[in-house]
Specification:
Strands 4-5-6-7-8 form a five-stranded mixed beta sheet. The chain has a five-stranded mixed beta sheet with strand order 13-14-12-15-16, sandwiched between helices. Helix 5 packs across helix 7 (231-243). It has helices spanning 3-22, 56-61, 66-83, 144-160, 191-208, 221-227, 231-243, 260-272, 291-304, 318-325, 327-345, 368-385, 410-426; strands at 26-34, 38-44, 49-55, 90-92, 98-112, 115-127, 132-138, 177-178, 216-217, 247-249, 255-258, 308-316, 350-353, 358-364, 394-401, 431-434. The chain folds into four domains: 3-83, no CATH class; 90-178; 191-267, Orthogonal Bundle (Arc Repressor Mutant, subunit A), CATH 1.10.10.10; 274-441, Alpha-Beta Plaits (2-Layer Sandwich). The protein is an alpha+beta fold. A hairpin with a 5-residue loop joins strand 10 (247-249) and strand 11.
């Protein structure tokens, strides 16, 4: 390294440390000249830290580049917020899973299929059972601070969609599993869904996934990116949960912890409403309850939940998969669709297999409008998952909620949702239609 470059890097290091210190973070460990042009940092405190590798060029430019300074400040804020509640490397998914991620620095590169690929290796560990998966994610041209956020949220999405296989501790894993690089969700979550996410996070990271009851940072900006919402939506959800007595203020700013009321509600919900106890991580076409189960469950659901919505999903072009690729590929397509729907629904409802390629989803406490938004997310998620590979398997979806229609029996409510689904088919497929149908359609 030349003398002028060394001085620039030292100035950048000083600015980097200053920005970390402003967020109450320290550099616990540092290795200069890591891979000749990068520096490894362990950041946090003596009790707990996370790690990252920063290029010398980035450090050289840091003092004079506003964009870089903003990146470091944002990263430091996020790490510090999680650190005050435990580990900065533990995250919560919409599917109810908590995991810890460990990055294997540096970022690697190699030629695959005659193309240069740049990728980041990670170890992902489920909390608290310790199952682990080795994962690899291709990275783009962004700076390392952006890459870390994308990697974390890509792993979250992959877990939600059932795309990562986890192994028992000590079990040999020969290959790294590819994780698709995910951007910010295309659709915003509703405020109710944000509140549901924070409730699950408070319960899981504050109680079940840790050795002792802990605080949870409710305002994590990485959560906002993962959910596709603004940070103010997280703050509002936190206020609502506090007002409802489900969480209470923690020891740090914007930190909360689960209350006895939340613990009791979670416990009683599992006992009183076993209808929704199915683990979405184990869903497959063969594990789903059927139409008869749905008709038996619906009276109980309607009795216990004043507001209720039903979604009916039918696959478009699925027959082409069976006809051209065979039934084994058709089964794989169905399993991917089920996992995709399960990732969107999470623990908010229950999925039933209505027919060969048709599914029904019960959503208690959902209005027609909220269920329609969820159905749109299902439609987009299946479209993006490409379960039929080169065959465009999409969904035609019907929605019916008891807030927008009168019905005499559960069968009639289901019939309305089914008719709405066929309206989606009739109008071009790959769409969502809610009951009642527009008057212009003659309904």
């Amino acid at each position: 390294m030349s003398e002028p470059t060394r001085r620039e890097t030292q100035l950048g290091l000083a600015d980097f440390k200053k920005r970390l210190n402003a967020a109450s973070l320290n550099i616990v460990e540092q290795h200069a000249n890591f891979r000749s042009t990068s520096i490894y940092f362990a950041i946090g405190n003596a009790r707990c830290q996370t790690n990252i590798v920063v290029s010398e060029q980035f450090l050289d430019d840091l003092p004079n580049t506003e964009e870089y300074r903003a990146m470091v400040d944002s990263y430091a804020c996020a790490v510090a917020g999680r650190l005050q509640c435990g580990s900065p490397d533990i995250f919560y998914c919409q599917s109810g899973v908590a995991f810890e991620i460990s990055f294997r620095w540096p970022i690697e590169s190699g030629v695959y299929n005659n193309q240069l690929r740049v990728f980041l290796l990670t170890d992902v560990t489920i909390k608290p059972d310790g199952r682990i998966a080795k994962c690899s994610m291709s990275v783009g041209e962004g700076r390392v601070f952006t890459t870390v956020v994308e990697a974390v949220n890509s792993v979250r999405s992959a877990i939600d969609f059932g795309q990562i296989k986890f192994y028992e501790p000590g079990e040999h894993q020969q290959f790294y599993q590819d994780v698709e690089r995910k951007r910010q969700p295309q659709e915003r979550r509703s405020q109710q869904e944000v509140e549901h996410f924070l409730t699950g996070k408070a319960y899981t990271l504050g109680f079940t996934a840790v050795d002792k009851e802990s605080d949870v940072w409710a305002a994590d900006p990485w959560d906002a990116l993962y959910l596709g919402v603004a940070e103010r939506d997280l703050a509002l959800a936190m206020r609502v949960l506090k007002a409802n007595g489900l969480v209470q203020a923690g020891t740090g700013s914007d930190c909360v912890r689960p209350t006895d009321k939340l613990l009791a509600e979670r416990s009683s919900r599992g006992k009183e409403d076993e209808t929704f106890s199915t683990s979405q991580q184990k869903l497959s076409r063969t594990s789903l309850p059927n139409k008869d189960d749905l008709l038996k469950d619906m009276p109980k659901i309607l009795k216990n939940h004043p507001t209720f919505a039903l979604i009916v999903v039918d696959l478009d072009n699925f027959k082409n998969v069976n006809d051209t690729k065979g039934h084994s590929e058709g089964d794989a397509c169905l399993d991917k669709v089920v996992a995709t729907i399960g990732a969107v629904v999470g623990r908010k409802g229950k999925i039933y297999r209505w027919g060969g390629d048709e599914f029904a989803i019960c959503l208690p406490d959902f209005s027609t409008t909220e269920a329609h938004a969820t159905a749109q997310r299902i439609r987009l998620a299946v479209q993006q998952a490409k379960p039929g590979c080169e065959i465009a398997v999409t969904t035609s979806i019907g929605v019916c909620g008891n807030d927008c229609t009168e019905f005499e029996s559960p069968e009639e409510l289901l019939d309305f949702a089914d008719k709405a689904m066929y309206e989606s088919k009739r109008n071009g497929k790959n769409r969502v239609t809610s009951w009642p149908l527009p008057a212009s359609d003659g309904s």
